[in-house]
Write a structure and sequence with these properties.
174 residues; mainly beta; Jelly Rolls; six-stranded antiparallel sheet; globular
């Protein structure tokens, strides 16, 4: 487990066993990180797709994110109002080859940019999805100043219309 300067956010270097047939990889061991993951989802993204920044205001999810195939630039923004790192982001590259995963604790907005032509991402979540409480934060918000690796971006209409960080602060600081 590799700790970061963000409380409860860490990187896992997954054990991988290779031979001439291929490989076997351990993605998650609940006994190592002491978390339960009742909700497992997967996404597929083409090159340059940006997904996010997403979070649930109520019933916030922790997410264990791994790349099954491809490579992504992964971003977690601390949206916990009482945190020392509130409004700051952590980024890293996750790929099938580097065999890294990230655990993003509840209260963070999450997003990524797909870097390969085919990218399969799996999310193990600590809570079920609650569409009524989902919000998107602008991936290109000037106050967050995220340095995305490519200017070629494919973004959904929902994510283009995300809240600015200043607007998000007004909502949570009420």
């Amino acid at each position: 487990m590799i700790e970061t300067k963000f409380k409860d956010l860490f990187i896992i270097r997954n054990d991988q066993y290779k031979d001439k047939r291929g490989y076997f990889k351990e993605l998650i061991r609940e006994n190592k990180i002491n978390k339960k993951f009742p909700f497992l989802v997967m996404s597929f993204s083409k090159k340059n797709v940006i997904r996010g920044l997403h979070l649930q205001r109520k019933n916030s999810q922790g997410k264990f994110v791994s790349v099954l195939k491809g490579k992504i630039f992964d971003v977690a923004v601390d949206m916990r109002k009482n945190s020392k790192t509130f409004g700051k982001y952590y980024s890293c590259t996750l790929s099938e080859k580097n065999s890294k995963s990230i655990f993003i604790p509840p209260g963070f907005a999450h997003g990524f940019q797909a870097l390969d032509h085919e990218n399969y991402i799996i999310y193990s979540c600590t809570k079920y999805r609650n569409s009524q409480s989902e919000i998107a934060i602008k991936f290109d918000d000037k106050d967050l100043n995220i340095k995305w690796p490519s200017n070629k971006m494919v973004v959904s209409k929902k994510d283009q219309k995300g809240l600015g960080f200043k607007d998000f602060k007004k909502i949570i600081l009420k």
